[in-house]
Specification:
With 135 residues, the chain is α+β, with helices and mostly antiparallel strands. 19% of the residues lie in helices and 44% in strands.
Length: 135
């Protein structure tokens, strides 16, 4: 694995939160993409919501998104850990091991951002985003 990255999820306040963190930590927001800019169908009310963004200040790095409309997150449980994989074999192996006693939230699949990706909730309730860039 390359690294572990915290992923913060919001109920429509991701842009506001990013500004808040910018004010607190300094740093910069990069790769901000809204649901409206994505290459898949979303309801119009989600068009300006954040699909994905990155925040970086020195060694501090995390990713942020709003949850999909209709899928509320509860404050305090709205964090997952993203694992950036080094190979297709590695993502496949971890996906199988985590889903054996856990719950698959999103099947391992090719995604529009140029990666193989899956989301698995492990046997203890922690959510793992598995990502292997293919491009």
């Amino acid at each position: 694995m390359k690294q572990t990255i915290p992923y913060l999820v919001f109920n429509g306040q991701a842009k506001e939160a990013l500004e808040y963190y910018k004010d607190i930590f300094g740093g910069e927001v990069t790769d901000l993409q809204t649901f409206g800019e994505a290459d898949f169908p979303t309801p119009p009310e989600a068009d300006e919501m954040v699909l994905h963004a990155r925040f970086k200040k020195g060694d501090l790095f995390f990713m942020v998104s709003d949850t999909f409309p209709g899928q509320e997150v509860e404050r305090g449980t709205n964090i997952s850990l993203t694992l950036e994989m080094e190979s297709e074999e590695q993502i496949q192996s971890l996906y199988e091991k985590l889903s054996e006693k856990g719950k698959v939230a999103m099947e391992l699949q090719d995604m529009f951002w140029g990666a193989k990706y899956a989301k698995v909730v492990d046997a203890y309730g922690f959510t793992w985003d598995l990502n292997y860039p293919t491009e």
